[in-house]
């Protein structure tokens, strides 16, 4: 087993609460997706038994890349009847497994990945999924931390998207060449309903910034909802980290599935 089947070094120390999903009823594995002239590595999972094309969920990684937790999220979604695909969105800039601490990982790799590149890559993921057993009319996205922010942006980028669920993604921030807009800037451009799941104890994403986003969404008359779990901190769904808050994570997961069912997972 290579390191890629485990957890990113910068995610250490690991907690004892790691959830591992059985692959008995699903098919999963590595693939590569043609995107912007290159082959992007990705992990995908789907139920073994499928009656026709499946609803698609693009799973957008945390800063740690597509490591074991994100793969397990894909397997959990496959058990719920989805084709889940998690692309390696940093692959042109480097490998998150080369970094052993979060600040270096962020400054040397994550900050060098342009939003425009990521959004275009996600479009290619959507078209790959539609050619590989997915239903392009039932396209959904969810993302965690770094991927939570991207999920908001993707809901404003792709008019074909039916729904998005953003887990503790940054809402406001400094504008840079690679990140010219943040979720608060695109509230008026959302094409799909977005559910945001946030932790009340998150020191990096303040309740003030959540309120700023809520106001922007209200002003835009956007179809979106933000749920704040008062006892949870950042990365409360990350069962492999000490930040895991089981009660909030379980509730968030059920809310995500309900959001997907409500806005696009069902056959029309």
UniProtKB/TrEMBL annotation:
<feature type="domain" description="Dienelactone hydrolase">
    <location>
        <begin position="40"/>
        <end position="263"/>
    </location>
</feature>
<dbReference type="Pfam" id="PF01738">
    <property type="entry name" value="DLH"/>
</dbReference>
<protein>
    <submittedName>
        <fullName>Carboxymethylenebutenolidase</fullName>
    </submittedName>
</protein>
<dbReference type="InterPro" id="IPR002925">
    <property type="entry name" value="Dienelactn_hydro"/>
</dbReference>
<dbReference type="InterPro" id="IPR051049">
    <property type="entry name" value="Dienelactone_hydrolase-like"/>
</dbReference>
<dbReference type="InterPro" id="IPR029058">
    <property type="entry name" value="AB_hydrolase_fold"/>
</dbReference>
